[in-house]
Write a sequence for this structure.
């Protein structure tokens, strides 16, 4: 579009006193909403032509017009709410796009050090200092490959620092919500982004595969929300929670994370400032009183394909390596044993030929037999109560019955309950 292109003028007089006159002039509520919808679509066209000023002006007019519709009719009220949310989301995407364009790259996370961020920096400087330094040291084992993966995907390399606040770069970090691993995936989100979980392996604990899943999730969230601050909030508490927080913003649309900062759950509200605090410290450690010169080195390894279950301690003894090092290379193995299908086992560098030559001689391992009882669900029973009764965990019951978290139980439903000393 050229500079002469103008935003469509609005000939809508929503303040006309006579409702019949409104109808005569085609300016009823539906017509107003239709015009607002057209302006929103026009903004998209301007955006695609890199005409940001006209795009924003179109959205401004669409939003102002939409607010004039009373919405007393339930159908009109819902359409108005849907349009408000669409405009809010579009304006967020547009401002994020404009900010990153000014900086010359899509993959930039704008650095802000405001009062919220300074509070988190001070926390890392004082009561969380040991946690920060230990987590930073551990990051050396994994962050190099993570940063390369983000760079290849065209996403901000700075996101590779997120596991510091997610898991402290601990492979087996487990949260209260059953989120697991460096990137703290819950089972359902892990499944959604391709992380397998069965009786033998849990790929949420695999640094490479979980990083690939995190990249896929970030891409999806960025398409949804358009700016990295909101993306990280959604990564922490879920896109649904963030969308609901946006919907509660009645006075104006949202073009800045800090506009709805206080509407988020406390933990999520701290999440982005906490991440920015990490970036501030690692980029300028001396400024904030840190010396960051010691990193753990990543373990060097080779890969061997094995096809039957053998305990890692048996393999470690044969190769004369530390079993903890072998387990650290293969953290997704749930029982410290290779599975009963083809598996790419990582071994310390220089040990692959020795394992290939001797693997057939190693003792095959059989997992403990799983013991179950059958429980018929009674009225009023919940999964937590059933797990408590049988002294097992909700997660084991879910796995044994191939159920997803949050699924409702039915009265009379039969559940297999794994007993306390059995293995699933």
């Amino acid at each position: 579009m050229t500079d002469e292109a103008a935003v469509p003028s609005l000939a809508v007089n929503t303040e006309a006193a006579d409702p019949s006159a409104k109808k005569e002039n085609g300016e009823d509520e539906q017509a107003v909403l239709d015009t607002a919808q057209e302006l929103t679509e026009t903004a998209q066209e301007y955006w695609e032509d890199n005409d940001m000023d006209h795009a924003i002006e179109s959205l401004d007019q669409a939003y102002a017009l939409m607010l004039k519709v009373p919405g007393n009719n339930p159908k009109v009220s819902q359409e108005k709410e849907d349009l408000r949310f669409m405009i809010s989301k579009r304006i967020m995407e547009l401002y994020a796009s404009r900010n990153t364009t000014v900086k010359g790259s899509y993959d930039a996370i704008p650095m802000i050090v405001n009062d919220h961020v300074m509070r988190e920096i001070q926390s890392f400087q004082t009561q969380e200092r040991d946690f920060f330094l230990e987590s930073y040291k551990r990051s050396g084992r994994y962050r190099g490959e993570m940063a390369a993966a983000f760079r290849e995907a065209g996403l901000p390399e700075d996101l590779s620092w997120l596991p510091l606040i997610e898991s402290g770069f601990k492979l087996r970090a487990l949260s209260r919500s059953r989120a697991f691993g460096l990137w703290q995936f819950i089972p359902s989100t892990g499944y959604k982004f391709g992380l397998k979980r069965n009786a033998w392996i849990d790929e949420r604990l695999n640094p490479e595969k979980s990083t690939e899943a995190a990249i896929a999730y970030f891409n999806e969230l960025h398409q949804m929300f358009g700016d990295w601050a909101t993306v990280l909030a959604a990564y922490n508490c879920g896109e649904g929670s963030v969308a609901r927080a946006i919907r509660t913003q009645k006075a104006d649309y949202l073009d800045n994370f800090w506009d709805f900062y206080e509407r988020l759950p406390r933990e999520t509200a701290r999440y982005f400032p906490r991440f920015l605090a990490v970036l501030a410290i690692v980029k300028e450690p001396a400024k904030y009183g840190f010396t960051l010169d010691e990193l753990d080195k990543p373990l060097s390894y080779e890969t061997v394909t094995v096809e039957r279950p053998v305990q890692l301690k048996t393999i470690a003894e044969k190769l004369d390596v530390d079993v903890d090092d072998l387990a650290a290379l293969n953290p997704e193995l749930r029982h410290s044993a290779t599975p009963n299908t083809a598996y790419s086992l990582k071994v310390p560098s220089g040990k692959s030929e020795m394992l290939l030559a001797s693997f057939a001689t190693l003792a095959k391992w059989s997992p403990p037999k799983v013991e179950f009882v059958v429980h018929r669900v009674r009225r009023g029973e919940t999964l937590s109560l059933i797990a408590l009764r049988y002294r097992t965990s909700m997660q084991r019951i879910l796995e044994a019955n191939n159920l997803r978290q949050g699924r409702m139980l039915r009265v009379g439903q039969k559940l297999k309950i794994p007993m306390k000393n059995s293995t699933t």
Notes: The beta strands are 301-306, 343-348, 372-376, 414-418.
